[in-house]
Amino acid sequence: MKKQYISASLLLTLTMALPVFAEERGLDSRGRASTTPAGVRAGEVRNNIEERKASSTERRVEMQRGLAKKKTERVARVLTATVERLEKIITRLESRIAKVKALGGVTAETESFVAEAKSHLSLAKLSIAALSSVDLSLDKARDNFERVRVAAAEAKGHIREAHTSLKKAIRSLKPGQKTATSTSDSAGE
User: Fold this and answer.
1) pTM
2) Are 80 and 128 in contact (CB under 8 A)?
């Protein structure tokens, strides 16, 4: 029994000492020789983690830039379609102005409102072109989206002004109406 006790204690001592011995000798947990010290391996692991974080940050930034680009394209497409619709209205309104002139009506005020609407639409087209060329190279998505929003707001403002001018032109063309600045216009509609 004494012999078993000694051999068991010797075996226990060896199993506890092996990992310490392996670390000192540069062996891995399976007893194979390792060519790199433990400190170097830990540094490699840290570098690997940092590389993965950097690549995931890069992917996230690229994804956000892609989203900003898609949003810019969509907003530009919607604003362009709005400008085209307003231009079709101007074409129909000019046709109506020609008919009223042929019947001997006065259309000077209406023509001035149409000219104003055309100038606002040309400014809107320039703003939309500027929106399409907005630089989206910033790393923060918030900054990129802010640039898109500012450029789109400018185009929207010009479109609103063109729309207002067209409403005034239509009102001034209708028979029986006073002027474009009648009391219904000042009531806030």
Assistant:
1) 0.60
2) yes
Bridge partners (DSSP) of residue 27 are 33
CA of 143: how far to CAs of 61, 72, 148, 180, in Å?
12, 13, 9, 42
Question: Which distant-in-sequence residues (6+ apart) come within 8 Å of 155 by Cβ?
Answer: 79, 124, 127, 128, 131
Lowest mean pLDDT segment, chosen from 12-21, 54-63, 165-174: 12-21
Phi, psi of 27 (to 5 degrees): -95, 150
- The per-residue pLDDT for range 153-183, each reduced to its tens digit, is 999 999 999 999 999 999 988 765 444 444 4
3-state secondary structure 5-47: HHHHHHHHHHHHHHHHHHHHHCECCCCCECCCCHHHHHHHHHH
Task: Provide Rg for the chain, Cα atoms.
Answer: 38
Under 8 Å between Cβ of 79 and 152: yes
CA distance 146 to 70: 14
List Cβ neighbours of 19 (8 Å cut-off, separation of 6 or more).
29
